[in-house]
Amino acid sequence: MLLEINHVTKSFGGVVATNDVSVSVPEGKILSIIGPNGAGKTTLFNLITGAYMRTSGTITFNGVKIDTMKPYEIHALGVARTFQNIRLFKRMTVLENVMTGMHSRIKARDIESFIPGRSQKIEAEITEKSMEALKIVGLDGKYAEYGAALPYGQQRRLEIARALVSDPKLLLLDEPAAGMNINESAELLELIRWINAELKKTVIFIEHNMKVVMNVSDYIVVLDHGSKIAEGIPKEIRNNPVVIEAYLGTKKEGGNADA
Amino acid sequence: MILQIIVNGLTMGCVYALIALGYSMVYGSLRFINFAHGDVYMWGACFGLIFARMGNIPFLAALILTMICTGLLGVTVEFLAYRRLRNVPRVVVTASALGASIVLSNLARVIVGAETYSVPAFFETKYFTVGNLVLNSLQFVLLGCSIVLMLVLNWFISKSKYGKAIRATSENQEVTNLMGINTNKIISVTFFIGSALAGAAGLLVGIYYDAVYSTMGYMAGMKAFTAAILGGIGSIPGAMLGSMILGQIESFGTTYISSSMGPAIAFAVLIIVLLVKPTGFFGAGDTHSNRV
Amino acid sequence: MDIKKILKSHKAQFGIVLAVAFFLPMFVKDASVTHIMILVLLYVILSMGLEIALGITDLFSLCHAAFYGMGAYVSALLSIYLGWSFWVTLPIATICAGLFGFLIGLPALRTNGDYLAIATLGFGEIFRLILVNGGDFTRGPRGLTGIARPELFGLDFTNKNVYYYIILAATVSIFLVVYNIPRTFFGRALMAIRDDEAAAAFMGIQVSKYKVTAFTLSGMIAGIAGAFYAHYICYISPDTFVYNDSITILTMVLIGGGGTVIGPVVGAVILTILPELLRSFVEYRMLIYGLVVVVMMQIRPMGILGHLNIRVSYLERRLKKNQPDSRKGKEV
């Protein structure tokens, strides 16, 4: 197992945001987390990446216990993420945003930034890797623009590039298709599949669009009110009465296309 | 001896409270440190000096006039220096406030003068001795005025229409806007009240120490800000409590440690509070995740 | 057209400014003008220091004058009491000011924005009070007199022009170091913290370490300016390193445009010369200064050069170098 979340509970004051959740993610798979608003999906991401510390339980990544580690330590182990409400570095260019994502992979010490010649060599390497990541998401032509000036869909792609550039073992995507039109989200789907198949990245993503989830996931975990109410392959989830009641049921009234 | 120290601390605590309330209220509504606030306090002392020199204005009238003048001054500063800066990084607003502070203190230098001026008395000072405690009528006036003003403020904030709007604005400006409350107007009212209270403090201190000078705003402003942070910035009872505590710390500190290091004691308290509990006693202001 | 293009390149601009700075003293006969030019350079160094903390990392520091004073006092005290040469005291002063910066950087780990501004202001005030109450050691408010001018290869440092060139050399080196920071991974870590601290942490940046480092560097650079100042004026007192000076340096950075490195230089030049031009209006000098600050913040909130996307050309250059082997990856 690449990631193992073992009976993790997180409470804020008296409010339980994540209640005794256990999830196992095997290497090389695409796992999606679904659930209604406020189900605790992003909280789970924040627990994995170290933004919150679990109240109880353990989280193990690649054999290392990470549940008390700080975000930067977890990132260095190979967990990279994107954000639900896009968080680009606003006063940095597209390329610089991606270059920043490389930080954990730079072996040089900070002081080497001040040594002429040495610094240029390090930077050349970072630039090259970052441009590769930008190419993957198709934004290499926009490297000199400010990240915040890009259209919404491209900002999401930029976040993915920024996460990919650190060559993570595990990629966490928080609603990567939110706010995208049909074409954009189809392309994004393709991209996620490609990242999984070609770059051999394990992907966990949070998504509301059921079509996307059913199409691309190897495995689905359903959260509701902080608890895991179901898990299984897409087919099982589609036919799970508990899930239909908690989540899909409400969607179906809106239109079948989603389910 | 101890009692004397406590009374002195209480007196200064009241002054800090009047100034700290302005910091706290402005921080509550606009989320930035109004560095010009200390200079509004200084202008209160200057207005007091001007009215005292006229000679025929009774104390109460001078107090009210001073409060109106400094209140309007505060509103003007907000209108000219901060209003256009609602959606820019806070650093920029703070820089504008620093500029406004320079303008206000130098305006006083130009208009009032660069020296330290003594204030013609509004009334005769009487001394009272209770045991070995020495009190004077100025202390009574200072304490009395501060307490009355704070009670009025408390009533205003909790009962009046504007007070409720001020509280709503400090909770959530966007929602308040949506509810049809004119936030700009509320912010003006906030500035008026905060500045009027600081002006009153300036007048009272000017009389109490019999000294008015153009740079008096800086140190008083900083101490009052410390008090506001101590109590939890944005909180009105917090500002009052924090001020009282700071007044006592300073009073004891200057007596038992070193009189010339008095201000350093206040700042040391400030830094300790910021390190240990940045939100103060009552504050829900900025908290900073140490997970990052 | 080509001339315009050349003028737009940073190297050309830098060359022109450097040439002007280099040849100007040769045409200046008035020692008081040379004095102002030295002050301009000192403030450029100071604003470079603050640029690292405030402009690049967004750490609001209101005690920059204290770092400056730390450098000045350490260097002056070593020179007076131990008779050490300026070239020994300068690095020691730099290190001490850096340590002071490190110490003040620690609250930055717990507090942010306005709170940090106030904490640094408190530190600055405590520093001043320690100097004032330092007794015979710091000679209190009277300050230190009789600080020796530097000596080197028999050059006459009492000559203002010679001193000017030494400071110019220091300024240029410091500028180049700071100018390069945003173009390195170290600088990007600082900028990422400025733009979104939490996101930076998720990108693998150890926020606490970088914040403290930024403060340390900022202090070191101010310390250098302090040492140069002490051995130039030969007299220092606590009054030189107070709140007002911190505000002055802060406004230089913000008016020029924090985060651009070039902006603060422009700000330092303008705001050092402006008060000198207003000397004949002594009474209104600071009033006008304050008005300029307020008005500038209204019309150019990001500073004179703050809107510039200044790091584009270097990215282009770097990519051209990398072109042949960067054409891999998948088109989507």
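Chain A has two domains: 1-78+168-259, 89-166.
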